[in-house]
Amino acid sequence: MKITVIGSTGRTGMHVLEQGVRRGHELTAFTRRPQLLANFNGIKNVVTGDGLLLSDVKKAIEKQDAIIAIVGDSKIPIATDITGTIIQAMYESDVNRIVCVSSYLLGSTRPRVITPLFQWLLRHSLADRLSADQLIQSSKTEWTIVRATRLLDKPATGNVRRLKAGHEFEFGPYEICRADLAAVLLDIVESRDDSKSIINVTWGKRR
Questions:
Q1: For 23, phi and psi rounded to 5 degrees?
Q2: Over the stretch 147-189, which tens digit does the pLDDT of each residue have?
Q3: Are the C-beta atoms of residues 186 and 17 closer than 8 Å to each other?
Q4: Are 185 and 68 in contact (CB under 8 A)?
Q5: Can you give the C-alpha Rg of the chain in angstroms?
Q6: How would residue 74 be classed by pLDDT, with cut points 50, 70 and 90?
Q7: For the whole model, what pTM was predicted?
Q8: Angle at CA 167, nearest 5°, toward 187 and 109?
Q9: Strands, E, within the chain: which ranges?
C-alpha cells in the first residue's frame, strides 16, 4: 500500500515507518524534522511540512491509499486543528482511508484509582484530542480511531488486546509499548475491517 505517516518522526511514528518498510509498503513520511530520517532506509518519500498548512498536507498525501496520523503529543493542544487540515486535504486529494491514534483515557474509568487523576491533569490535551476524534467521526472518510492505553518505550511483544469503544478492559496492564501499537495501526490500515470504528488497545497480559 501507499501510506503517508503523519507524525512520522515521533516515537510511535518511527516504529510505524520501520515496520511498514519491513511489510513492503511504499511509505511517505511527513515531518517537520526530516533530519531525523537522514539515515533511515526504505522510505519511498520524505515530505517536509507543517500539519497546520493545507498545501503541505496535500503534498504529502497525494495519490496515497491511506494515512496513519499520530498527532497530539505536543504540549500545545493542536490535534484538532491538524486533524481538520488533514480531513480537508483528504477531501481535496481524493484520499479516503485514515487511521488515527487517540487516548484510552477518553471515556475510560479503569484503573479506577488513578484514571480520574490523569483525566484531570491532562484535561486540556484530552479535550483537544476528543474534539479531534469528533471531527474524524463526523467526516466522510473511511476512518478508524485507535485509543491506546499508557505508551511505553519497550520491545514489542505481539501480545495485544483489542476492544471496540464502549467496552473497557476489565484488568491490566493498562499500558502498551509503541512498537506493538505501531503493529496494530498497520494491521488495521491493511485490513479495513474496523472502518468507522473506535478501537481500544492495550497489552494482553502483565509483563
A1: -80, -5
A2: 999 999 999 999 999 999 888 898 889 999 999 999 999 999 9
A3: no
A4: yes
A5: 16
A6: low
A7: 0.94
A8: 115
A9: 2-6, 26-31, 45-48, 66-69, 97-103, 142-148, 150-152, 160-164, 175-177, 197-203
